[in-house]
Amino acid sequence: MTAYLITGVSVVGGEPTDLLIRDGVVAAVGDGLAADDATVVDATGLVALPGLVDLHTHLREPGREDAETVESGSRAAALGGYTAVCAMANTSPVADTAGVVEQVWRLGREAGLVDVQPIGAVTVGLAGERLAELGAMADSAAGVRIFSDDGHCVSDPRLMRRALEYVKAFDGVIAQHAEEPRLTEGAQMHEGEVSTRLGLTGWPAVAEEAIIARDVLLAEHVGSRLHVCHVSTAGSVEVLRQAKARGVRVTAEVTPHHLLLTDAKAESYDPVFKVNPPLRTAADIAALREALAEGVIDIIATDHAPHAVEDKECEWAYARPGMLGLETALSIALDVFGPRWDLIAERMSRTPARIAGLTGHGVDPTPGVPANLTLVDPAARRVIEPAELASRSRNTPYARMTLPGRIVATFLRGEPTVLDGKAVK
Q: Which of 18, 263, 284, 303 is catalytic?
């Protein structure tokens, strides 16, 4: 295993120092380090962060390898500064058995670019009718601890309660796609002024808020862990704030696109801006940003959702919802919050690793810890060109936008997966 000496780097925004990586761990941190056998990486002007962790990634394999594979998604993640991603269960077949989650886990290990931790389905086939094999998935080689029907809401309250009760036995987490389906039938975008003007059926904010309110009550009653996926409304923030004040074991995520883009993007009828939950208003964005800074919303998660060309380049009504996110998430965080490095490390690495129970990830580079880290050039600015992305899909909402920051290097247990901004494998 090659040793690396990273010189002149700012660790989470601190004063420049040197990092020595040897045998997969951070061997030393300090000024003027030397190691004759180490490959030197000049990191002057760069910032070292603990490797980013994404709790919400769609890798599409098995079943939709035309849109993404575990390998291509892992490469996109590494180029985005990630060392671990949690792969959602809405594959084909659905990841609702030990066999399927172990397949995804092994594909991630074979790719070797990031740690791929599968998320298991809550219900069989995501149908919302009966619980999937939660215990078998938890006991599998993949060691599943998060379960979600993402893309579908577990709308039956009795089934949701049973799921929360079941995973409590092994301190698991139910991650809910909060959408009351009877309030969103035929919905095309956020319900509001823009949808009225465009004549598109609206997705009301209350459809999200009602499910979150119900589920925090269920989690409080059971004493179990609930995670709320892709929070998108100011009302949801208030429900979460009140629940946390009562001590409910609830965490929540927000996506980069819900921190930056508004429902006005739908005026173009460009399906790249169609997503679930939909883009909301400027007032919602302001509330989400404030909640993330406060910790009412715990993390940024990408909801990286690649789609094949035929599923996106079509009429708005027929387009599949979803956007790419892995290769641009850190840039969006910098665009929104500026170089608040400790906040970014907390919301994009430490806390998501803690929620997922990913030992060795989300730890600042200090002597003795696994060398899972990313080096960022905060002074760089880059134009997002879809054709240059590592994902197999091209449905990025940031095409031709100029965004701050550039991932220069990513290390997974001491081995580089990205160097000089390029994937090593």
A: 303
- The predicted model gives 188-210 an average pLDDT of 98
Cis peptide bond prior to 93, omega within 30° of 0:
yes
Residue 416: cis peptide before it, omega within 30 degrees of 0:
no
Which tokens sit at 384?
């997002």
Q: Half-sphere exposure of 23 toward its Cβ, with a 13 Å CA cutoff?
A: 5
pLDDT tens-digit readout, 320-377:
999 999 999 999 999 999 999 999 999 999 999 999 999 999 999 999 999 999 999 9
Which residues have a Cβ under 8 Å from the Cβ of 128 and sit 6 or more positions away? 149, 152, 153, 154, 155, 156, 159
Q: 3-class SS at 381?
A: strand
| CA–CA gap between residue 46 and residue 219 (Å, rounded) | 42
Domains of the chain: 3-48+367-423 (2.30.40.10), 50-356 (3.20.20.140)
User: Which residue, among 131, 49, 70, has the nearest Cα to 96 in the 3D structure?
Assistant: 131
* Global pTM value: 0.98
Q: Is 303 a catalytic residue?
A: yes
Query: Which DSSP string do the residues of 221-262 spell out, in sequence order?
Result: HHT-EEEE-S---HHHHHHHHHHHHTT--EEEEE-HHHHH--
Give residue 141's identity as a one-letter amino acid code: A
pLDDT tens, position by position, 131-174: 999 999 999 999 999 999 999 999 999 999 999 999 999 999 99
The pLDDT value recorded for residue 415 is 97
Alpha helices in 360-425 (DSSP H): none
At residue 1, does pLDDT exceed 80?
no
The length of the chain in residues reads: 425
SS3 category, 294? helix
Q: If residue 320 lies in a helix (H) or strand (E), which one and from where to where?
A: none
